[in-house]
Specification:
16 helices; about 350 residues; about 80% helix
């Protein structure tokens, strides 16, 4: 074996060992934060009580809080963190834009419009089916349709406009237009429905029923499966569409699959948890920073673990353990995500993605 080949093999082995250590650390972080999310909350429950409930549930108040509230909420945080992070990774790659994300480019706003039309526009139909299977699929279908519509518009603009900042400005304008439409809907709706919608817009991980959690999980799994299929395509697309075409990649198919996956992932989370910002844009950059790679075979599982960790941490902070107050989780994700966005801007990451 030549010296060059030996050095290359040693480098690959070192990377594999480092990746393994990082993945194990991230997985343990998810487990620890998941456990802490169950232990901590506005109601103080001793560790011994938590373990007792976990292994022998009963009808005590502690059992109800843990089994009916905290565990589903922690599961929701994991699923939502995965979905938003994976959708953000795909959007940043397909648009070659470091600021791309479901929240920034208006995809979440589109999903919010779909939800608003269901809650505010078709209130009688929605209230009758609330919490049931048909109602869940109605809500999630409307959110995915809204997200998909905006995703199509953004994709069209990206194919015509090459400047990153222009796309971002257009995305903000789309979000503003959607907000105006929602405001008009709010003006003509009743106070009770308006209050329910305003609370929903604050973002929450704790209002899901078992049926809703199951529906959301199924849709997120389907979106992640499509993302796994896209790994090789996304790796090639990082080098440009012209190069991807010469290597035999069907760019049009890749865009359609990203369109479907992102709409399903961002739409399903927005439907049940409300608009949760900055997870989709921040986590992919954190994954790149930690693993120092642009290989989606590494970045996809890294985003899955990092996204789950960050949203679990946000949920723990939002609960204000020991207090009877609960903050909107969207406020916490913004406070945690904005410094990452600022760091990306000051590090000049636009150059890496610019066409």
């Amino acid at each position: 074996m030549s010296v060059t080949a030996k050095l290359l093999n040693d480098h690959v082995s070192a990377d594999r060992a480092r990746y393994t250590a990082l993945f194990v650390s991230l997985f343990l972080t998810v487990v620890i934060l998941f456990i802490l999310d169950i232990f901590l909350g506005s109601v103080k429950i001793s560790p011994s009580e938590v373990f007792r409930v976990a292994f022998a549930g009963d009808d005590s108040p502690a059992s109800i809080i843990i089994l009916k509230f905290r565990i589903p909420k922690a599961l929701t945080a994991v699923i939502a963190g995965i979905a938003l992070s994976v959708s953000g990774l795909q959007m940043q790659t397909i648009f070659r834009n470091p600021m791309a994300g479901p929240y920034v480019l208006g995809i979440s706003s589109g999903a919010s419009l779909g939800v608003a039309l269901v809650i505010l526009g078709f209130a009688p139909l929605f209230s009758e089916k609330m919490g049931t299977g048909p109602g869940n699929w109605l809500l999630i279908s409307a959110a995915c349709a809204g997200a998909g519509l905006i995703m199509m518009v953004v994709t069209f603009m990206a194919s015509r406009v090459r400047d990153i900042l222009t796309i971002l400005i257009l995305g903000i304008m789309i979000g503003g237009a959607i907000s105006a439409l929602v405001t008009i809907l709010q003006y003509f709706t009743s106070e009770s429905l308006l209050k329910a919608y305003v609370i929903w817009t604050m973002g929450s991980l704790s209002n899901l029923t078992t049926a809703q959690l199951g529906t959301m999980t199924l849709t997120v799994i389907s979106g992640v499966i499509v993302s796994v299929y896209l790994i090789k395509m996304l790796n090639v697309l990082q080098l440009g569409e012209a190069y991807a075409t010469t290597t035999g990649v069907n760019v049009k198919l890749a865009r359609i699959l990203v369109f479907i996956s992102t709409s399903v992932l961002a739409g399903s989370i927005t439907a049940f948890c409300g608009p949760i910002g900055f997870i989709g844009i921040a986590v992919p950059h954190l994954a790149r920073m930690i693993f120092r790679t642009s290989d989606h075979r590494v970045l996809l599982p890294a985003c899955i673990l990092a996204g789950a960790s960050l949203l679990l941490l946000s949920d723990i902070i939002s609960q204000l353990p020991g207090s009877d107050k609960v903050l909107p989780v969207n406020a916490i994700t913004s406070l945690l995500g904005i410094p990452v966005v600022v760091w990306v801007i000051f590090r000049g990451r636009f150059i890496k993605y610019n066409r």
